[in-house]
Amino acid sequence: MYVIEKLLELYPEPKCTLEYNKPYELLIATILAAQSTDERVNKITPTLFKKYPSLEHFANADLKELEKDIKSVGFYRNKAKSIKEIAKLLIEKYNGMLPNNIEELTTLKGVGRKTANVIMANIFGVPSIIVDTHCMRLSNRIGFVNSEDPDKIEFELRKIIPQDMYTIFSNLMVYHGRAVCKARKPNCSQCIINNVCDFYKRLSKNNNF
């Protein structure tokens, strides 16, 4: 696929940008990243995972103290509650392991398809379309989709992205969204894929480029 091929020239090894050492740590980090940024999350997780070195520690954490520990990422009350409940459930139902399918993952409190797909892609190696804010923005701008519904976008992208490239495509969207196709001031003139981008074509037409 042209877009993937061109972006791989810029970002040859796109990977998940959340930092973690254990599978459940990625789950917690992804929950924390909702309505926040990976950069912000990566600033607090080293201390957080040192303070709570196991699922048992998260399950038994004082809720108010956990809220304070993650307060900087926003929506911290709901996230703290979700993390505690998930930790307890993983211990009691899954023997401390993560479910290995998206259906069970999305039954966990605070886990939607985006978070579940992050786990499927990075922990279980299953190619997955991860619709975060970057993927949503770029997919709409390029013209792959015309929707603000993450689930609809995921299934639309599945139709046009080669299955073995699902995860790579998703990671490329993050890299390019941060570096070039930014939310407020996209650097369209320097974009390596502007020749196939609907947003740039409209911009060029309106400005008589």
Give me some keywords for this one.
209 residues, mainly alpha, Endonuclease Iii, domain 2, Endonuclease III, domain 1, 2 domains
Word description of this protein:
The chain has two domains: 2-13 and 130-206, Endonuclease Iii, domain 2, CATH 1.10.1670.10; 23-122, Endonuclease III, domain 1. The protein has helices at 2-10, 23-33, 38-51, 55-59, 63-69, 76-94, 102-105, 113-122, 133-142, 150-160, 166-179, 198-206. By secondary structure, it is mainly alpha-helical. The longest helix is centred in the middle third of the chain and has 19 residues, at 76-94.
How would you concisely characterize the structure shown here?
Helices cover 59% and strands 0% of the residues. The chain has helices at 2-10, 23-33, 38-51, 55-59, 63-69, 76-94, 102-105, 113-122, 133-142, 150-160, 166-179, 198-206. GO terms for molecular function: endonuclease activity.
Gyration radius (Cα, Å) is: 18 Å
CATH class of the largest domain: Mainly Alpha
Q: What is the distance, rounded to the nearest whole angstrom, between the alpha carbons of the first and last residues?
A: 27 Å
Globular, elongated, flat, extended or rod-shaped: what is the shape? elongated
The biggest beta sheet, please? none
Helical residues, percent: 55-70%
Order of helices and strands: HHHHHHHHHHHH
So how many helices?
A: 12
Enzyme class: lyase
Catalytic activity: 2'-deoxyribonucleotide-(2'-deoxyribose 5'-phosphate)-2'-deoxyribonucleotide-DNA = a 3'-end 2'-deoxyribonucleotide-(2,3-dehydro-2,3-deoxyribose 5'-phosphate)-DNA + a 5'-end 5'-phospho-2'-deoxyribonucleoside-DNA + H(+)
Binding site for [4Fe-4S] cluster: 181, 188, 191, 197
GO molecular function: endonuclease activity
